[in-house]
């Protein structure tokens, strides 16, 4: 296995590098990249929660024909995600072995993180953006001309302020909070992150006791963002990242909520537990030196009834579910 890099800085709290390429693809092409079907390729890994969001939203909105998708393997070296799953280890559209190549086509010698998701301009082979929080919002707002009939409104105008407020808290304390636990460089920073994480999970449980979805009575961007962390909780974060006050399956409200989403078309069928486990346990060698991937937990319980229908609401509102995957 190639050098996997290090993720823990001794005696320091974990700080995520958020220096993303913030170029946007918009209807008016203000940043030089107009919305255009067939021009862009979304590069993802099913292992990564940030990329998993874009996979889900692309499928929910029906953007598969407008935006192609390249899938990196679940593991990577210290520098770049790679196209290990494709014949010849080359992305079949971009014809590159490493995502780093597309970053270098945009910024020669690019020194920041080579991250997924990334959207690549196919004609130039250059990354347009890896700004994952904005990508899914733009899928909803800027790409609406290419949404499927019956696509849900994941970012409704009348709920945007509340969605943004919830997303901010969930990102700080949960989405990134699990990493602040797992990559903490001191007991003090781990304890603080752990307490913040479970305090927010308790807050979310109280909120979701009385409503089926995080904001409003249908799925929104907020549910997508929380789901990808919850899906990784028992397979990875509980043990690997020491987020072990209890398992997700021992938190009744959040466990039922997560199963409700998992069983909704677009969520469970965009989740790959094998890739998730392979990535975290094989790549983070400074916290799992052996690289051994646990066989458990048994994930069949994701298919158990959740009973959340009793709270009202419906996943797609007046819309429809995406067609089953072929």
From TrEMBL:
The UniProt entry, under CDD domains, shows:
GST_C_Omega_like (cd03190)
Cite a single Pfam family from the UniProt record.
Answer: GST_C_2
The active site consists of 48, 179
InterPro entries with a match to the protein in the record: Glutathione-S-Trfase_C-like, Glutathione-S-Trfase_C_sf, Glutathione_S-Trfase, GST_Omega-like_C, GST_Omega/GSH, Thioredoxin-like_sf
What PROSITE patterns does this protein map onto?
GST_CTER (PS50405)
According to UniProt, residues marked as the site described as Lowers pKa of active site Cys are 237, 280
Q: Which SUPFAM superfamilies match?
A: GST C-terminal domain-like (SSF47616), Thioredoxin-like (SSF52833)
Q: Which GO terms describe its molecular function?
A: glutathione transferase activity
Q: Which residues bind glutathione?
A: 81
Per the record, GO CC terms? Answer: cytoplasm
Q: Where is the GST C-terminal domain?
A: 156-290
Protein name per Swiss-Prot or TrEMBL = GST C-terminal domain-containing protein
Species annotation: Gordonia malaquae NBRC 108250
């Amino acid at each position: 296995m190639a050098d996997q890099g290090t993720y823990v800085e001794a005696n320091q709290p974990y700080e995520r590098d958020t220096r993303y390429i913030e170029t946007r693809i918009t209807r008016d092409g203000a940043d030089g990249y107009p919305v255009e079907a067939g021009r862009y390729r979304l590069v993802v890994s099913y292992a990564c929660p940030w990329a998993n969001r874009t996979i889900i939203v692309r499928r929910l909105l029906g953007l598969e024909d407008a935006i192609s998708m390249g899938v990196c393997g679940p593991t990577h070296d210290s520098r770049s995600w790679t196209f290990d799953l494709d014949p010849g280890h080359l992305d079949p559209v971009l014809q590159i072995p490493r995502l780093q190549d597309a970053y270098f086509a945009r910024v020669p010698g690019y020194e920041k993180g080579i991250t997924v998701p990334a959207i690549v301009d196919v004609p130039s082979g250059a990354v347009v953006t890896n700004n994952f929080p904005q990508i899914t919002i733009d899928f909803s707002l800027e790409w609406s001309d290419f949404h499927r009939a019956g696509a849900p409104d994941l970012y409704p105008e009348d709920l945007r302020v509340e969605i943004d407020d919830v997303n901010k808290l969930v990102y700080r304390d949960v989405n990134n909070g699990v990493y602040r636990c797992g990559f903490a460089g001191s007991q003090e920073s781990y304890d603080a992150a752990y307490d913040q994480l479970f305090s927010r999970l308790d807050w979310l449980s109280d909120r979701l006791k009385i409503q089926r979805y995080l904001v409003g009575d249908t799925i929104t961007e907020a549910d997508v963002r929380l789901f990808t962390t919850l899906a990784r909780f028992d397979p990875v974060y509980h043990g690997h990242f020491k987020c072990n006050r209890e398992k997700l399956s021992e938190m009744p409200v959040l466990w039922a909520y997560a199963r409700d989403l998992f069983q909704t078309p677009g969520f469970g069928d965009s989740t790959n537990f094998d890739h998730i486990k392979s990535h975290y346990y094989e790549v983070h060698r400074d916290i799992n030196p052996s690289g051994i991937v646990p066989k458990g937990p048994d994930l069949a319980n994701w298919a158990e009834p959740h009973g959340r229908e009793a709270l009202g609401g419906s996943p797609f509102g007046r819309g429809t579910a995406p067609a089953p995957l072929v």
